[in-house]
Design a protein that fits this description.
about 5% strand; Glycosyltransferase; 15 helices; two-stranded antiparallel ribbon; mainly alpha; 4 strands
Length: about 500
C-alpha cells in the first residue's frame, strides 16, 4: 500500500503563482544583466574610438575676472568642399606639404627657377601697371582666398609675378616650424601671445590652411580656439595684458586674424567653428567704437588725450576693418570709421610721399618709407589704389627703400607692408622691389624653417632704422615675430587676388 500526499486547491494555486513570479524575476534579471553588459561594451568602444577634439570654452559676457564658463566640444565633422572638375585625362600632382588633395597640373610652362634665380629675367610685372589708374587691388578678398587654395594657381602666380618654387618651399618650411613650436593651448611664444598667435594664424590662412587641412588643420583650429576663447572671456577685448597701454596693437592684429579666419574657414568652406562669428562681431565692433576723434586709435584705446594715436597703430586697425568688412558680418559704423581712418593717414603724408608717425613730420632715424608703405597698403585695401597718397608713397619706396638683413636697413616690419603695396602697384616699381626683398629673405631662412635674427652677422650690432624693432632678437618672441613677417612677405605673390582677376572663381 502506498501513501500519497495531496495538496489542497489553495496550496496548488499559491505554488503556481510562486513559480510564475520566479520565472518573471529571472527573465527581468537576465535582461538587465545583458543591458548592463551592452552599456559597458559601448562605453569601452567609445573611449577607444573617440577622437582627440579640442574644446571651445564659451564664456558669458561680463567682467574680465568673471569665472563662470560653459565648456563645449567642437563639432569637427565638416565636409571638405569638392575641388573643381577636371579632365579625366589630366595629370595630377600631390601637394607635398599643404594638402593631400590631388591638384590638376596647370596648362602652363613653369620654368626651372634654378637656371635663372635672381638674374632679373624671372621677374613679372606685378598686379598693377604702376599708373594712376590704380593697379591691382584687394576688392574681392573672399574670391582671392579661394584662389590661393590651389597649388597649381599658386605656382602659376609665383611664376608670373616674380616668385619661384623656392618661395613656396620656404613658406611650407616656416608653417611646419610654427606647427612644431605651438604651445599646448594653441598659442605661440611667451609674450604677447594674442598678437603672436594671430600673426601665425594669418600666415597659415595666407597659404589656405584651414581647420580641415590635412597637415596643419589641428594647428589652425587650436589657434582659432585660443583666440575665440580670449575674445569671449574678455567681452570683446583681445590682449594678454590690459595694463600695458600697447594692447591696442594686439587687439587689432587679433581682429584681423579672426575675421580672415571666419571668411576663409566658415564663409568660404563651411567649417563649423563655434563662437567664431560672435568673436569677430564683438572684437570688431569694440575696435570701431573706440576710434579716436582724430581718425586713428590711441594706446589703451584712450579717447580723451591730445595725441590721438599714430599711423602705425592705424595701419593694423585699417587692415582689420577691411577683414571685418569682407566677413559679411554686420558692423555698425564701419564705413564711417574707415573713411575717418584714411583721412587721418592722408593728413600724415609729407610732400615727398613719406608718412609721419604721429604728425606730418619724418623722424630723424627714418626716411619715411616704412610708414609710407603702411599708408599705401591701407588705401589700396580700401579700393583707393589711384589715390595720390599711393602714388607718392610708392615712388618714395621705389627710390629709397632697401633691405640689408645685417645692416641698419633691416626693418622687416616695413617690408611686410612694402611687399604688399608694391606688388599691388606693379610695373617697374614691383620689379625693382621684388629684387630688393625676395632673395635676401630666402637666404636668411634657417634649416628648421624659422628666420635668422637680423643685424647680427659679422658687422656687430648697428642701429636699425626702425622704431622698436622687436622682430630682431633671438628669443622666442623675436624669432616667432620675424618668421611670421617673413612668411607673409613670401606669400605676397598669391595671398590676395589682383584686380584684373577679381571676378575669377
Amino acid at each position: 500500500m502506498s501513501l500519497h500526499a495531496q495538496l489542497s486547491p489553495e496550496a496548488q494555486a499559491r505554488l503556481a503563482a510562486q513559480r510564475r513570479t520566479s520565472t518573471i524575476s529571472s527573465l527581468i534579471i537576465g535582461i538587465l544583466v545583458m543591458a548592463l553588459v551592452g552599456v559597458i561594451l559601448l562605453i569601452i568602444g567609445i573611449q577607444f574610438s573617440k577622437p582627440d577634439i579640442p574644446t571651445i570654452v564659451s564664456y558669458s559676457a561680463g567682467s574680465e575676472t568673471e569665472e563662470s564658463l560653459d565648456e563645449r566640444k567642437v563639432n569637427t565633422s565638416t565636409q571638405r568642399k569638392p575641388s573643381s572638375p577636371s579632365s579625366s585625362m589630366a595629370k595630377v600632382i600631390a601637394a607635398a606639404s599643404a594638402s593631400p588633395t590631388a591638384i590638376p597640373v596647370p596648362d602652363i610652362d613653369i620654368p626651372d627657377p634654378s637656371t635663372n634665380f635672381g638674374d632679373g629675367e624671372d621677374f613679372g610685372s606685378g598686379w598693377g601697371d604702376a599708373s594712376d589708374s590704380g593697379g591691382g587691388g584687394f576688392e574681392n578678398i573672399p574670391v582671392a582666398m579661394k584662389k590661393r587654395c590651389s597649388l597649381a594657381d599658386r605656382l602659376a602666380r609665383l611664376d608670373s609675378n616674380g616668385g619661384t618654387k623656392e618661395c613656396e618651399e620656404a613658406v611650407v618650411k616656416a608653417l611646419r616650424w610654427f606647427k612644431k613650436t605651438q604651445n599646448k593651448d594653441g598659442s605661440w611664444a611667451k609674450g604677447q601671445r594674442t598678437a603672436m598667435t594671430s600673426l601665425a594664424l594669418l600666415a597659415y590662412l595666407g597659404h589656405c590652411e584651414t581647420a580641415q587641412s590635412e597637415e596643419f588643420g589641428e594647428s589652425v583650429f587650436s589657434a582659432i580656439t585660443f583666440l575665440v576663447n580670449k575674445a569671449m572671456k574678455s567681452n570683446g577685448k583681445m590682449a594678454d595684458d590690459f595694463k600695458d597701454d600697447h594692447w591696442c596693437y594686439e587687439h587689432a592684429i587679433a581682429v584681423y586674424a579672426l575675421a580672415e579666419a571666419y571668411t576663409l574657414c566658415v564663409k568660404s568652406f563651411g567649417e563649423n567653428i563655434p563662437n567664431l562669428e560672435e568673436a569677430v562681431q564683438s572684437t570688431g565692433q569694440f575696435m570701431i567704437d573706440r576710434q579716436h576723434k582724430s581718425g586713428s586709435w590711441e594706446y589703451a584705446y584712450k579717447m580723451d588725450n591730445s595725441r590721438g594715436g599714430d599711423t602705425s597703430i592705424a595701419g593694423w586697425h585699417i587692415q582689420a576693418l577691411k577683414a571685418c568688412y569682407h566677413s559679411g558680418i554686420e558692423f555698425k559704423g564701419i564705413s564711417k570709421t574707415s573713411r575717418a581712418a584714411l583721412e587721418y593717414m592722408e593728413s600724415m603724408q609729407v610732400e615727398n610721399g613719406g608718412i609721419g608717425y604721429s604728425s606730418p613730420k619724418i623722424r630723424d632715424n627714418s626716411d619715411g618709407t616704412t610708414l609710407a608703405a603702411v599708408g599705401a597698403l591701407c588705401f589700396q585695401m580700401w579700393d583707393k589704389s589711384s589715390s595720390p597718397v599711393v602714388r607718392k608713397a610708392c615712388k618714395l619706396i621705389n627710390d629709397k627703400m632697401k633691405l640689408d638683413w645685417d645692416g641698419p636697413d633691416s626693418d622687416l616690419y616695413g617690408h611686410y607692408y612694402a611687399a604688399q603695396c608694391m606688388i599691388n602697384y606693379g610695373g617697374d616699381y614691383w620689379k625693382r622691389y621684388n629684387k630688393v626683398f625676395r632673395d635676401q629673405t630666402l637666404a636668411n631662412q634657417e634649416e628648421d624653417g624659422s628666420f635668422r635674427p637680423v643685424n647680427t652677422r659679422g658687422k656687430g650690432k648697428v642701429k636699425i632704422n626702425a622704431v622698436a624693432a622687436s622682430f630682431a632678437g633671438d628669443g622666442s618672441f623675436g624669432r616667432h615675430y620675424r618668421t611670421a613677417l617673413s612668411t607673409m612677405m613670401l606669400e605676397v605673390y598669391y595671398r590676395f587676388l589682383p584686380a584684373s582677376q577679381k571676378t575669377g572663381g
